[in-house]
Amino acid sequence: MLDSRVTLSVVRTALCIVIPACSATGPVAEHWVRLGPDGMWVTALAQTDWGLFAGTRNNGVFLYHSETADWEPLGLSSSQVGCMLYLPGDRPKLLVGMVWRGTEPTEAAVFATEDGGETWVPSDGGLASSVGGYFWAHSLGLDPNNADRVYMGGPYSLLRSDDGGSTWEFVYGNSDQIGLGIRSISVSPHADRSVWAGGQSSLGVGPIFRSLDSGASWDVLFPAPRHEVAIEAVLVDHQRQNRVWAGLLGTVDGGSVLYSDDRGETWETSLREPLQTPALVYINETLYAVARQFVESDLTTGRPYYRLRLFHLQDGSDSWQSIPAPESWGGWSATADENGDLIVGTMGSGVWRYSP
Question: For residue 52, which of 19, 70, 117, 221 sits 20 to 30 Å off, Cα-Cα?
């Protein structure tokens, strides 16, 4: 069992390019609030009964205390946090997936807490340790029709747990499969046993994995076979059972969000903007696309600067609408909070809350 209390040390790299002040002014300030933590690259978010959790690129996991507007560090800083999944119920649990950072191995691909982050225990069934610590969880997904069934996306493999993430079995590929990560998993809310996942192969092509039998068998589809893209986000439409959305790292026909109305057989461009779209979130009947837009690169370090963009697609509409966003580093992760607000994690400006 790991003690989660660690000392926080944050170093922010200075860039030569002009970095925005990360503020919301004018009409934007009516809808956006910056929550912090300052300077953090927030790679994963989870709203739980204990509060809002944020996973970061280099500094582990934090819990937001709304009454004091403070972030409490909770450890797990040895690897980059890749994903989070909250399992509600009589014994709620938060799963945190770890991804590769440099050459460092990880003790476990997934850690779990049942006490709000006081303690963390490995929860990958010994998977990472069986291969020397070099296996990572890029995504996690919960079956909304089965509270004990969880899916995990590996480098180029998929796993399923039927006991809330305590033990896992491969349902596609194995621990030797090489890829750039299965980055998103969406289980259909329509009780049709369909499971969807997206990521990027070692050759740079973005696959969609489709199972119509709860993960027993899989089809591998390529929405953009002639493009070098990654499927950063995949989401089953909440209203139309056969519609699936895909957010891209890269563009197809000038667009960054695709959709299929025939369960992945054919795909169309939906959001025609040259963006990177790492997160798609439903709040009530509105679909949000959290994105980032390239602005410029630092001439000394070559580090690119991406600014935050946000779009929404309201129920019954086929046209995305751009939502004014604060001057901030680009979006990376997102979730909905208990009030129906959108929570956005950025690439260096911490967490923002958008209230419609």
Answer: 19
